[in-house]
Design brief:
It is built from four helices and six strands. The chain is α+β, with helices and mostly antiparallel strands. Strands 1, 2, 3, 4, 5 and 6 form a six-stranded antiparallel beta sheet that branches. A hairpin with a 6-residue loop joins strand 1 (about 85-90) and strand 2. The chain starts with a helix and ends with a strand. The model is unreliable at about 5-25 (pLDDT under 50).
Length: about 150
């Protein structure tokens, strides 16, 4: 539990930084959510740190680089993208490229929400990044990204 407090203390310092970008803020939120999920699932420091790392990566991509256009496209893939079939697009403003491969929908055993996992490959500022994300329908029927 001490390690979890250290992770949150470091994240809090990052959040208070006056130079925080949207990516850093997204990474911060993703890391915090991922750490909580990792701890809840694995009940260990290792699981907490892995959760924080995965969440930070996803949070950075979503927070820093995906604008409304990209988030709308991602939501559309979760909504109607065929399972195991890649959907790709290039953001007309930023030039960033995304390729998303959604998995079949399933019902979460804990929340009873309909969820989908997807692999996201992005080329941002010429650098390739890959992450996995899960989105679940909220009470309004909208896809909402989960922490990891």
């Amino acid at each position: 539990m001490k390690q979890l407090r250290v992770v949150f203390a470091l994240l809090a310092l990052l959040a208070l930084s006056s130079c925080a970008t949207r990516g850093q803020t997204g990474a911060l939120g993703g890391a915090a959510g991922g750490a909580l999920i990792g701890q809840a699932i694995g009940h260990s420091t290792g699981a907490t740190l892995i959760g924080a790392a995965v969440g930070a990566g996803l949070g950075y991509i979503i927070g820093n680089e995906m604008d409304k256009y990209d988030r709308d496209r991602l939501s559309n893939v979760y909504e109607s993208g065929p399972s195991n079939r890649r959907s790709s697009w290039v953001n007309p403003d930023s030039g960033n490229r995304y390729s998303v491969t959604p998995q079949p929908a399933y019902q979460s055993s804990g929340t009873q929400q309909v969820c989908r996992r997807a692999e996201i490959n992005a080329v941002i500022d010429g650098k390739s990044q890959r992450t996995y994300s899960t989105a679940c329908r909220n009470s309004y029927g909208e896809w909402e990204l989960q922490g990891s």
